[in-house]
Design a protein that fits this description.
Strand content of chain B: under 5%
Largest sheet of chain A: none
Helix content of chain B: over 70%
Order of helices and strands of chain B: HHHHHHEEHHHHHHH
Largest interface: A-B, 46 and 48 residues
Strand content of chain A: under 5%
Distance between the termini of chain A: 15 Å
Mean pLDDT of chain A: 86
Number of strands of chain B: 2
Oligomer: heterodimer
Distance between the termini of chain B: 12 Å
Low-confidence stretches of chain A: none
Number of helices of chain B: 13
Largest sheet of chain B: 2 strands, antiparallel
Radius of gyration of chain B: 19 Å
Amino acid sequence: MNVIARHRIILPVVSLAVLLAATFWLQPRAMSYFGLNLLFNLAVPIALATIAQMLIIMVNDIDLSVGAFVSLAACVTATILNDTPALGVLVLALMVAGYAAMGVVIHRLELPAIVVTLGMSFIWGGLALFVLPSPGGTSPGWLRTLMTVKPPLIPAAVLAALLIGGITHLMIMRSGLGTVLRGVGGNTRSVARAGWSVTRLKALAYGLAGFFGVLSGMALVGLTTSADANIALRYTLLSIAGVILGGGEFTGGKISPVGAVIGALTLTLAASFLSFLRLSPDWQIGAQGAILILVLTARLLFNRKGVAA
Amino acid sequence: MSVLSKPWIWAWLAALVTFAATIGLTSGRGTGELAYAALSFGAFAAIVGMGQMLVITLGPGNVDLSIPAVMTLSATLALKAMGSEPGTALMGLGVALAVGIGAGIANYALIFLLRLPPIIATLAASLVYQSLAIWSNRGLRIRPPEGLADFATGRMLGLPNVAWVGLVIAVVLWAVLERSIWGRWLLASGQNMRAARLAGIPVELVRATTYLVVAALAGLAGYLLASFSGGAALNMGAEYLLTSIAVVVIGGTSIAGGYSNVPGVWGAALFMFLVVSMLNSYGAGAGVRSVLTGAIIIGIVIAASTRRLRT
């Protein structure tokens, strides 16, 4: 079991390493403190959004509202949190509570998560337009400082990715509660029979996802210094891709937080890699798709070999 | 088995109520125009929605996220092939359908050969289609041939031509689902894929044709939409990603698979358009409109589920 668990993470690590090596080969100047920071800067909010998506996939649901939610968090950060910090914190906390409530509703009424989150994506998007009707706003100064901090030796973006991966790994893979949460995805009924309240566990999983969604929005504003209501819409699909790229599966609570972070980094790097190749920017989106397909193909070969051995 | 227990009735009732609410505001002025606009714009949502419905009927995990990209790509390539020359409409239609079918084959190849979950396969493929569309579109704006544009915006017997196309597709799909062996196979596969396979149903063939049909319908919708709106645009399909799923669910098709509902998709497509125009005519801003649309989608899903629990 331990071997398989270790294998699950090998492929995402190898694909990131290969892509990184290819990038350095094309553009040796990227192999520096500033180069790495530039390459992975925008990966931080994507990694956080991917963790949010992973927490939902962990309990066998899927979240089509991550992108809209992160956009809303970004809009709130760039306006309310900047103008009146106390109110901003309250609003962001309410958003997290809203996410937890969404989990409860989905579980209690046995609703399909894909549809409820689809409906919620309209609601988050509408609220974002309400908060910030036209692109603008300003990042709170402390957030800007935090996102542009330059720690010695390790670039901030890499450090942030390590932190996100490490903390969520401890939280989901190592802690008792994290194991139970993954159990909800593995076998809901046996978790319920073991005396756990599945409603509370789902609320916790969704609440955590909301928390990471809010962090993602804040990180994004810290980087871009302003926001608009559509700023992160593409995160919905990117986060799903990141989770799967990181070795996660849609059912059974089989997920990997470290893998999800690596998946997000790989997707971000794919875009830079292609621009170093001097391929026309037309192909950047397609390249992300092609790399996604390639890595998943590699996973298939890998699995087959595993079965044969 | 009263009429009220039919799953499609709710979408139509909701469409009627919003229609009445909008007309009530203008005290009857513009009734015909509103119905006409709803049928025109609803037709596009209905066509892609019916495709999505077939895929969702295949069972949990089956959904096509490449619909917007396929719409854009086939519209772009079809308009490029026609180059605004008169008399090329049929050739353009052929190009659009061929692009759609090609995308469908690619999607299914990823699902079958690489064993990818359909969500991730169609998502990855859609990124590639999107790039292809950007590459071939490159800032050029080709107008559709005159005859085709006239057809797409024209009417017959008082109904918009695009609505006729949508209605014909609906009737054909309904007949196929209810009366043909393939339709029965599709429903059986959606209800229990393992049981269907053991019963000798060629499950993979059914899945393959379903992914082909949805992509072909997306290609057709893209072709019509581009002809209707005077040219292809890179973001023309974007709103149909969420809409295509929403109309299926509101229309009463089971998200768990195995039960299709063709009339419901049309009702829901009209409803989705009418909600927006109702909120517009009450002077709601974009934010309020979006929030209410979301609330209505969730409300309908909750209503549908409590009805299911009671029976």
